[in-house]
């Protein structure tokens, strides 16, 4: 079943990464979120890591009131993070795995372990009317377990596809997992490592209704500004979505020039 629309949630973590390199006040990830919304982002994603390597508690506090679309708070399933989410009440929490030694999230949440803790967290968040998504690998068993745990949504880890976009297997896994998730009544999201060059085939998957993209947008913004970078990604997603399954965005993709907001 084709999702009626496909949302772009922009992850602003790495705006904070640049700021934290100097432990100063700029660039401001909250201001970046405002500009991303102006450029057409449907939501803002931020990951408050336990080691606070980029996004800080004060950022999340400000994002909770500054974001006019919706805030998707990525976090580990810990008592500390759960308390923060319950206090700030973002629209959505995405539970992710987290290891302090990793550079970035390296894989999906292992939903075969710690089921009781995950179910309790999901139930607690849902009781506070906070939507819960689980970041998982595109594996059929993981999709089924996410459903059994009571999650409202899944975010499929697109890292293997992004690393090997010419390999048919990772894309097939995404398609099959997305279809399974939709059959089970889960909302299906996707993200990790997506760029304007590889997002087309993922955008074309009928059941995927939300894409979470950050690093490539922030990287591109160094050259063109974050507003233009969001518009480029939005255009690339649109090309892939309209083309349908099996169509990619070429290396020569040239999105329309962004216009200045009124």
Explain this structure to me?
- There is one protein chain.
- This protein is of the alpha/beta class and 262 residues long.
- It has one domain: Aldolase class I (TIM Barrel, Alpha-Beta Barrel), CATH 3.20.20.
- The protein is built from 11 helices and 8 strands.
- It has an 8-stranded parallel beta barrel, surrounded by 7 helices.
- β2, α3 and β3 form a beta-alpha-beta unit.
- α2 packs parallel to α3 and α10 packs across α11.
- The termini are far apart.
- The C terminus is likely disordered.
The pLDDT mean sits at 90
Q: Class by helix and strand content? A: alpha/beta
Structurally, how many domains make up the residues?
1
- Tell me the Rg in angstroms: 17 Å
Query: How would a textbook summarize the main sheet?
Result: 8 strands, parallel, barrel
Order of helices and strands: EHHEHEHEHEHEHHEHEHH
* CATH uppermost class: Alpha Beta
The number of helical segments is 11
Our estimate of the beta-strand percent is 15-25%
CATH topology: TIM Barrel
Poorly predicted parts: 246-262
Distance between the termini: 37 Å
Write the layout of secondary structure elements.
Elements lengths: L6 E5 L1 H8 L8 H10 L4 E5 L9 H10 L4 E5 L3 H10 L3 E4 L19 H13 L3 E6 L3 H10 L3 E5 L1 H5 L4 H16 L3 E5 L7 H5 L4 E6 L1 H10 L1 H18 L19
Parallel strand pairs: 1-2, 1-8, 2-3, 3-4, 4-5, 5-6, 6-7, 7-8
Helix pairs in contact: 2-3, 6-8, 10-11
């Amino acid at each position: 079943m084709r999702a009626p629309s496909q949302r772009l949630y922009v992850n602003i973590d790495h705006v904070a990464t640049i700021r934290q390199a100097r432990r100063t006040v700029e660039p401001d990830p909250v201001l970046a979120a405002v500009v991303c919304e102006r450029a057409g982002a449907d939501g803002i994603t931020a990951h408050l890591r336990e080691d606070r390597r980029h996004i800080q508690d004060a950022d999340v506090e400000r994002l909770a009131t500054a974001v006019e679309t919706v805030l998707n708070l990525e976090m580990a399933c810990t008592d500390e993070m759960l308390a923060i989410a319950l206090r700030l009440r973002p629209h959505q929490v995405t539970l992710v795995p987290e290891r302090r030694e990793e550079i970035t999230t390296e894989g999906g949440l292992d939903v075969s372990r710690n089921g009781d803790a995950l179910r309790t967290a999901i139930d607690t968040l849902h009781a506070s009317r906070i939507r819960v998504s689980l970041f998982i690998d595109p594996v059929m068993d993981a999709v089924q377990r996410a459903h059994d745990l009571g999650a409202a949504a899944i975010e499929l880890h697109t890292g293997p596809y992004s690393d090997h976009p010419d390999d048919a297997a990772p894309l097939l896994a995404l398609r099959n997992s997305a279809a399974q998730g939709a059959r089970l009544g889960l909302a299906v999201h996707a993200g990790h490592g997506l760029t304007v060059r590889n997002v087309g085939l993922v955008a074309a998957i009928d059941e995927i209704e939300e894409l979470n993209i950050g690093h490539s947008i922030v990287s591109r913004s160094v050259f063109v500004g974050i507003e233009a970078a969001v518009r480029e990604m939005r255009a690339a997603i649109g090309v892939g979505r309209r083309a349908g399954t099996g169509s990619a965005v070429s290396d020569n993709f040239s999105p329309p020039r962004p216009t200045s907001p009124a």
